[in-house]
Design a protein that fits this description.
A hairpin with a 4-residue loop joins strand 1 and strand 2. The protein has one domain. A two-stranded antiparallel ribbon has the order 1-2. It is mainly alpha-helical and about 170 residues long. It is built from 9 helices and 2 strands, in the order E-E-H-H-H-H-H-H-H-H-H. It starts with 6 loop residues before the first strand and ends with a helix. Helix 1 packs across helix 2 and helix 7 crosses helix 8.
Protein backbone atom coordinates (compact mmCIF):
# COMPACT_ATOMS: atom_id res chain seq x y z
CA UNK A 1 0.00 0.00 0.00
CA UNK A 2 1.14 3.53 -0.69
CA UNK A 3 1.06 6.07 2.14
CA UNK A 4 -2.04 7.73 0.73
CA UNK A 5 -3.94 4.41 0.79
CA UNK A 6 -3.33 3.57 4.44
CA UNK A 7 -5.31 4.57 7.49
CA UNK A 8 -3.90 5.92 10.74
CA UNK A 9 -4.93 7.85 13.86
CA UNK A 10 -6.79 9.97 14.78
CA UNK A 11 -9.84 7.96 13.83
CA UNK A 12 -9.92 5.58 10.92
CA UNK A 13 -9.75 7.80 7.87
CA UNK A 14 -7.60 7.88 4.73
CA UNK A 15 -4.12 9.24 5.38
CA UNK A 16 -4.63 12.14 2.99
CA UNK A 17 -8.03 13.20 4.34
CA UNK A 18 -6.90 15.85 6.82
CA UNK A 19 -8.75 16.26 10.12
CA UNK A 20 -9.68 19.83 9.10
CA UNK A 21 -11.23 18.82 5.78
CA UNK A 22 -8.31 19.47 3.46
CA UNK A 23 -7.39 17.02 0.71
CA UNK A 24 -3.66 16.44 1.20
CA UNK A 25 -3.35 14.93 -2.30
CA UNK A 26 -3.92 18.45 -3.70
CA UNK A 27 -1.26 20.07 -1.51
CA UNK A 28 1.74 21.56 -3.34
CA UNK A 29 4.10 19.94 -0.84
CA UNK A 30 2.40 16.54 -1.15
CA UNK A 31 2.59 16.78 -4.96
CA UNK A 32 6.26 17.76 -4.67
CA UNK A 33 6.94 14.87 -2.29
CA UNK A 34 5.40 12.28 -4.59
CA UNK A 35 5.69 13.59 -8.14
CA UNK A 36 7.75 16.75 -8.51
CA UNK A 37 11.08 16.89 -6.64
CA UNK A 38 11.93 20.33 -8.06
CA UNK A 39 8.67 21.72 -6.66
CA UNK A 40 9.50 20.25 -3.28
CA UNK A 41 13.00 21.77 -3.35
CA UNK A 42 11.56 25.21 -4.12
CA UNK A 43 8.91 24.98 -1.41
CA UNK A 44 11.38 23.69 1.19
CA UNK A 45 13.67 26.60 0.40
CA UNK A 46 10.82 29.12 0.69
CA UNK A 47 9.78 27.67 4.04
CA UNK A 48 13.34 27.49 5.37
CA UNK A 49 13.16 23.72 5.83
CA UNK A 50 15.73 21.07 5.07
CA UNK A 51 14.59 19.11 2.04
CA UNK A 52 14.27 15.90 4.04
CA UNK A 53 11.94 17.66 6.52
CA UNK A 54 9.70 18.91 3.70
CA UNK A 55 8.57 15.46 2.54
CA UNK A 56 4.97 14.74 3.48
CA UNK A 57 2.72 11.71 3.07
CA UNK A 58 -0.44 13.38 4.41
CA UNK A 59 -2.06 14.58 7.61
CA UNK A 60 -2.35 11.16 9.22
CA UNK A 61 1.02 9.80 8.15
CA UNK A 62 4.25 9.33 10.04
CA UNK A 63 6.11 11.63 7.62
CA UNK A 64 4.76 15.19 7.77
CA UNK A 65 6.17 18.67 7.27
CA UNK A 66 7.23 20.70 10.31
CA UNK A 67 4.08 22.80 9.82
CA UNK A 68 1.83 19.73 9.83
CA UNK A 69 3.73 18.17 12.75
CA UNK A 70 2.90 21.25 14.82
CA UNK A 71 -0.78 21.33 13.80
CA UNK A 72 -2.98 22.03 16.80
CA UNK A 73 -6.07 20.84 14.93
CA UNK A 74 -4.55 17.39 14.43
CA UNK A 75 -3.51 17.14 18.08
CA UNK A 76 -6.95 18.31 19.26
CA UNK A 77 -8.77 15.75 17.11
CA UNK A 78 -6.41 13.03 18.29
CA UNK A 79 -6.91 13.93 21.97
CA UNK A 80 -10.69 14.04 21.59
CA UNK A 81 -10.84 10.82 19.57
CA UNK A 82 -12.31 12.44 16.47
CA UNK A 83 -11.37 11.57 12.91
CA UNK A 84 -12.48 15.05 11.69
CA UNK A 85 -13.08 18.45 13.24
CA UNK A 86 -16.68 18.31 12.03
CA UNK A 87 -17.39 15.55 14.59
CA UNK A 88 -16.49 17.76 17.53
CA UNK A 89 -18.98 19.29 19.93
CA UNK A 90 -16.95 22.55 19.66
CA UNK A 91 -17.10 22.66 15.83
CA UNK A 92 -16.32 25.15 14.38
CA UNK A 93 -13.95 26.35 17.07
CA UNK A 94 -12.04 29.64 16.91
CA UNK A 95 -8.81 27.84 15.96
CA UNK A 96 -10.44 26.12 12.98
CA UNK A 97 -12.14 29.35 11.91
CA UNK A 98 -8.83 31.25 12.02
CA UNK A 99 -7.11 28.44 10.10
CA UNK A 100 -9.81 28.50 7.42
CA UNK A 101 -9.50 32.27 6.89
CA UNK A 102 -5.70 32.30 6.50
CA UNK A 103 -5.28 30.87 2.99
CA UNK A 104 -7.48 30.39 -0.10
CA UNK A 105 -6.82 26.64 -0.33
CA UNK A 106 -8.87 26.36 2.86
CA UNK A 107 -11.95 28.17 1.53
CA UNK A 108 -14.13 25.05 1.32
CA UNK A 109 -13.42 23.44 4.70
CA UNK A 110 -17.02 23.75 5.92
CA UNK A 111 -18.39 22.16 2.76
CA UNK A 112 -15.76 19.41 2.91
CA UNK A 113 -16.45 18.55 6.53
CA UNK A 114 -20.20 18.50 5.89
CA UNK A 115 -19.69 16.24 2.88
CA UNK A 116 -17.47 13.88 4.90
CA UNK A 117 -20.32 13.62 7.42
CA UNK A 118 -22.80 12.87 4.63
CA UNK A 119 -20.94 10.33 2.48
CA UNK A 120 -17.86 9.29 4.48
CA UNK A 121 -14.19 10.13 4.18
CA UNK A 122 -13.27 7.76 1.36
CA UNK A 123 -16.08 8.89 -0.95
CA UNK A 124 -15.40 12.55 -0.10
CA UNK A 125 -11.69 12.11 -0.83
CA UNK A 126 -12.52 10.74 -4.28
CA UNK A 127 -14.81 13.73 -4.91
CA UNK A 128 -12.17 16.17 -3.64
CA UNK A 129 -9.53 14.70 -5.93
CA UNK A 130 -11.96 15.22 -8.80
CA UNK A 131 -12.41 18.86 -7.80
CA UNK A 132 -8.63 19.38 -8.08
CA UNK A 133 -8.20 17.39 -11.31
CA UNK A 134 -7.65 19.03 -14.67
CA UNK A 135 -10.80 18.84 -16.81
CA UNK A 136 -8.63 18.29 -19.87
CA UNK A 137 -6.06 15.66 -18.86
CA UNK A 138 -7.10 14.53 -15.36
CA UNK A 139 -3.86 15.57 -13.60
CA UNK A 140 -4.31 16.38 -9.93
CA UNK A 141 -3.29 19.99 -9.29
CA UNK A 142 -2.93 22.14 -6.20
CA UNK A 143 -5.10 25.15 -5.44
CA UNK A 144 -2.11 27.32 -6.43
CA UNK A 145 -1.62 25.77 -9.88
CA UNK A 146 -3.50 28.32 -11.98
CA UNK A 147 -2.67 26.29 -15.10
CA UNK A 148 -2.55 22.50 -15.19
CA UNK A 149 0.96 21.40 -14.34
CA UNK A 150 0.80 18.73 -17.07
CA UNK A 151 -1.11 20.10 -20.06
CA UNK A 152 -1.33 23.83 -19.31
CA UNK A 153 -5.15 23.93 -19.34
CA UNK A 154 -6.49 27.02 -17.61
CA UNK A 155 -7.94 26.90 -15.08
CA UNK A 156 -6.16 23.86 -13.74
CA UNK A 157 -9.26 22.53 -11.96
CA UNK A 158 -12.72 23.41 -10.66
CA UNK A 159 -11.32 24.60 -7.32
CA UNK A 160 -9.09 27.17 -9.02
CA UNK A 161 -11.97 28.29 -11.23
CA UNK A 162 -14.10 28.94 -8.14
CA UNK A 163 -11.43 30.71 -6.08
CA UNK A 164 -9.14 32.30 -8.68
CA UNK A 165 -9.28 35.89 -7.35
CA UNK A 166 -8.44 34.86 -3.77
CA UNK A 167 -5.63 32.61 -5.02
CA UNK A 168 -4.17 35.41 -7.16
CA UNK A 169 -4.29 37.77 -4.18
CA UNK A 170 -2.47 35.21 -2.01
CA UNK A 171 0.21 34.69 -4.67
CA UNK A 172 0.81 38.43 -5.18
CA UNK A 173 3.88 39.92 -3.51
CA UNK A 174 2.91 41.98 -0.51
Amino acid sequence: MTPQETDSAPGQAPTTAAVCGLCCDACSIFIGSHEDPKRLELLASRMGWDLEDAYCDGCRSERRTPYCEACGLYRCAQQRGHAFCGECEDYACAELQAFQRERPHRAELWESLARIGEIGAEAWLAEAKGRYSCPSCGTLNSAYDLKCRSCGHEPSCDYVAAHREAILAALSPR
